[in-house]
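Reviewers asked in the last cycle whether our approach scales beyond single polypeptides. To address this, we selected a multi-component target totalling 293 residues and predicted its structure end to end. The input consisted of the following lines:
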Amino acid sequence: MHLTFREWWAVVHGMGLGALFLLAFAGGVAEFWSLRSGELSEKGIVTRTRRLEIGTWVMAAAAWATVITGTWVVYPWYRSTAADSPKSLLLADPNTADWHEFGMEWKEHIAWIAPLLATAVAFAVTYYGTSLIRHQGVRRALMAFFTASFLIAGVAGALGAFITKAAPVH
Amino acid sequence: MEETSSMQRVSRPGAGADKPFGPIAAVFLAAGVGSLVLGILTTLAEANESVKSWLEWSTSVGSLSGKTILAVIAFIVAWVVLGIALRGRDPKPSTVFTWTAVLVAVGLVLTFPTFFTAFAPEE
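The resulting structure, written as structure tokens, was:
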């Protein structure tokens, strides 16, 4: 039951912030879905909009924190030139080389698109506030981009989990 | 209870003055621009070794450092510039969201390894 300093950071990056991201998405998408006119009282609109603002900003913040810790803290250990670094180990075996050449190469780039979209959605929710319910087309589009941000981060997260299983950072 | 019966449903939910769509258009298009810049830099770095070296702003992070910092700068600058340009304006949301989706999709393609490695120089 011991984790090294680097493993702790990998846990914070992948599991801590990843779980927060997932929770914020689940809450946010539920609030987006329910924010339809004719189904809520004025008080309900205010409450749900407030929760939606919190959910979208938490997801955006989690996305930024995830990519920043991933790129600037964990990734340098992964790509170290040492013979026992995860990247070196993956590339040394033709059976695992694709985890780096495709998996990590894709993950390290697309992950950065998630916070851009999540920030745009959170800003739009805050900008419109309780009047968002009157813009149902915009609400649906925001929900689509919110989901796209989640799916992009999901691809990066899943690849990260598989790569960590194949060659963890120690 | 937030849910209401049909008797209690509001006739005009979320009352208040309508805001122009310009500021939302600015941030969404900026997100698209940031994605596109990330994609272009990823493919350029693969195609040209000198570009890749120039993007290595951090030795430990490699060229990913320059790519991501420039993509975030592009996002922020585009947000500010478009925010000023679109202030008080009301562009059509469907057009803005379509352009954003196109920019993000192109960014995704340009960051896809099978695509950008096609531009790698012959070894």
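The radius of gyration of chain B is 21 Å. We regard this as preliminary and will revisit it once experimental data from Aim 1 are available.
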